[in-house]
Amino acid sequence: MTLRKPTVSDASSIAAISLEVWIGTYLKRGVSAFFADYALTEFTPAKTAKLISDPNQFMLVSQNDEGIDGFMRVSTASKAPVAGCSEMEIATLYVQPRHHGKGIGKRLLNAAFQHCDETNVPSVWLATNAENTPAIAFYLAQGFKHVGETHFRIEDQGYLNYVYAYQFA
């Protein structure tokens, strides 16, 4: 497994992982048109290619012998939904479920920390669904602290998310 910066040619692979992880994590009781339409509109190769090319986004992918198995994205100038956080956000940290437990998420997160540290920010924040207990346990084990709540919105629907921050020494 190697970590590397993605190229635009990786956009379809990253979009596919986004669909897989998002649907598998958040749609536990079946897929309705409401959520399918959101996911298929949001996680596209075209939108992913724009993120890869955006200078305000720092992305890395985890590459194994077969292809990409995870990725992370750090956004700069991202206003936190709670006071006291920097404008540096870990916007996405996705690893294919079949690759959980192999250290990929931790390596991606450590690379995100290194990037943030190199930019001299005092902290980094992220939000995760309040029902995503595996992700919450992972972030807490890595030193994040719960600092507030927000809601992830799809159209007029809101879903409780917890906000976590990591302070650099």
Q: What's the quick description here?
A:
This protein is α+β, with helices and mostly antiparallel strands and 169 residues long. The chain contains five helices and seven strands. The strands form two sheets. It has a four-stranded antiparallel sheet with strand order 1-2-3-4, sandwiched between helices. It has a three-stranded antiparallel sheet with strand order 5-7-6.
Structure characterization notes:
With 169 residues, the protein is α+β, with helices and mostly antiparallel strands. The chain has five helices and seven strands, in the order βαααβββαβαββ. The chain has a four-stranded antiparallel beta sheet with strand order 1-2-3-4, with helices on both faces. A three-stranded antiparallel beta sheet has the order 5-7-6. β6 (145-154) and β7 (157-167) form a beta hairpin. α1 (11-26) packs across α3 (45-53). The longest helix has 16 residues, at 11-26. The model has no long low-confidence stretch (mean pLDDT 94).
